[in-house]
């Protein structure tokens, strides 16, 4: 099962952290498991998420064109584009 890493900026790290449960649920709906959040230790507003999935294509497609409920969650969590997706090979 490939590991996926998604990095991006956020407007407020504290606010983003509050969305962990909702974020894990959204990733789970795309087939992701073992969701882990990371916050940059340099004090910047850079964050990362890792998870495992058998369906990388769905994750990439969904993030590229999020459905309205996911787009709303991304706004609430303060995501700042671009989102960069890495996949373990």
Could you list the spans in which at least 5 consecutive residues all have pLDDT below 50? Answer: none
Proportion of beta-strand residues: 25-35%
Question: How many angstroms does the end-to-end distance come to?
Answer: 10 Å
The helix/strand series, from N terminus to C terminus, equals: EHHEEHHE
Largest sheet: 4 strands, antiparallel
> What's the CATH first level?
Alpha Beta
Structural class: alpha+beta
Using only C-alpha atoms, the radius of gyration works out to: 12 Å
Mind telling me which CATH architecture this is? 2-Layer Sandwich
Q: How many distinct beta strands?
A: 4
Query: DSSP helix count?
Result: 4
Helix proportion of residues, in percent?
25-40%
Task: Please state how the strands of the largest beta sheet are arranged side by side.
Answer: 2-3-1-4
Instruction: Compute the average pLDDT.
Output: 97
Shape: globular
Number of domains: 1
CATH topology: Alpha-Beta Plaits
């Amino acid at each position: 099962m490939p590991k996926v890493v998604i990095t991006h900026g956020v407007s407020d790290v504290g606010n983003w952290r509050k969305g962990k449960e909702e974020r894990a649920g959204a990733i789970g709906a795309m087939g992701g498991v073992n969701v882990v959040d990371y916050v940059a230790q340099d004090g910047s507003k850079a964050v990362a998420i890792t998870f495992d999935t058998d369906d990388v294509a769905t994750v990439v497609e969904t993030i590229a064109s999020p459905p309205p409920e996911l787009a709303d969650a991304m706004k609430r969590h303060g995501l700042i584009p671009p989102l960069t997706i890495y996949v373990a090979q």
